[in-house]
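Section 5.1 Outputs to date
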Amino acid sequence: MLFARRKIDARGIEMAQQTAWRAAAAARGLGVRDLSDHVGIAITGLDLAQAMDAPTVSMLRAACAERTVILFAQQQALDPAGYLAFARRFGGRPDLHSQRHYCLPDHHEIFVVGNAQEGGKKIGASRVGLNWHTDHYHLPEPGLFTFLHALQVPSVAGDTRYANGMAALDALPADLRARIDPLQVLHSRARLFRMLFPEASEAEMEAERQKVPDVIHPLVRLHPELQRHGLYLGGEWGSTILGLAEAEAQVLFDSLLQHLIADPFCYQHAWQPGDVLMSDNRCSMHRASEWDEASEQRRLHRIILIDDQRPVH
């Protein structure tokens, strides 16, 4: 169900507001275009393979925090080494995925998402992203920023949709906001792993359980750079609200998720080859859409930077 929404006030993410990062982008001669009311910004005029000074990195970080996701189009010339160097500029620790056979041989920090093949062999994880989630929500210090670089995209479908948890929280009725404010969520990597990698062996499953124990994070978390609160549901395949009966918890989780992913709080990206998306995981969720895997290939290169802070209320 969708909740009746309060009017969203104008704190921080209104399109007309000339924030400091917008002024900084304009001063550098960069193009800036909002992609929807509350989510997404397209920035043009940057070659991500080139060196960037610290003020430019700070400007991009602020833009991503406020708008959830940045689009850098036409980055076909960006090679894996340059891509990784760009991502590393934003702090955090690059994730090394346990399914190393889906990572680039020379750059294990880059994970291949999709159904691409080389020499008749599958080189990517096709189910990754096909559920609403925040990257690495199952870790004590979860995902900070995620980068996706499109190399191959299907002619139709295969989009990725992003949702802004801060705008969604602001729009909740006051009584519901008060109800959910103290709640916590249990996040299970083992439960998620089985859904993502149905081909995994029992030994791999047990290794995941041992390596990544369940964690608990607040349902409403603070974005440390914006000092705003947002919904932090985790993922629909691995998260459960605590402190409620199981059925009640699932109904609440599903209701909040449907509210969060409604059109007013979302941007849906139709991929083009060369696109790079940078997204802030701290108060957002995203989901890839299915495509015709029998006839078309999709290959995205993903880098996830891990935060050095636990989510706090």
